[in-house]
Amino acid sequence: MKDAEEPQRVVYDLNTIESFTDDGNEIVTSLIQCDRAREPIDGDPRLIKVPRLTQNHKTLWESICARTEETKNQTRGDLRAKDIDMSKKFG
Predict the structure, then answer these.
(1) pLDDT digit string (tens) for 13-48?
(2) Which residues are CB-contacts of 91 (< 8 A; sequence separation ≥ 6)?
(3) How far are the Cα atoms of 5, 17, 21, 34 from residue 9, in angstroms, in the given order?
(4) Model pTM greater than 0.85?
C-alpha cells in the first residue's frame, strides 16, 4: 500500500442501546457502531451539535477558550505568589 492513494478520512458514530434488564433491575446498555460513515468535523467537539455554526461563532468560541485558559494560568500564578500549595490539581 506504499504506492496507493491515502484512504478518505471518515468517522463512524457510536450509539447507546439498551440490551436488557439484569437481575438487580438495572438496565444494561451497550455501544453499537453506526453503519454509515460521515466526514470528520474539525474543531471543538462541544460545538458539534450547534446548528448553523459560522466562522464568527468558531472564532468567538476560540477566543473564549483562550481567555479561560489564560485566566487559569494567571490564577495559578497569583496563588503561587501567595505561597499557596499548588501541588493539587485545580480544574
Answers:
(1) 888 999 999 898 888 999 899 888 888 767 777 887
(2) 72
(3) 12, 26, 37, 16
(4) no
Range of the domain at 74: 14-81
Q: What is the pLDDT of residues 35-85, one digit of tens each?
A: 888 887 677 778 877 788 888 888 888 888 888 877 877 887 877 888 877
Structurally, the chain folds into a number of domains equal to 1
Q: In whole angstroms, what is the distance from residue 69 CA to residue 64 CA? A: 9
**3-state secondary structure at position 56:** helix
> Is the residue at 53 inside a domain?
yes
Q: Is residue 61 part of a domain?
A: yes
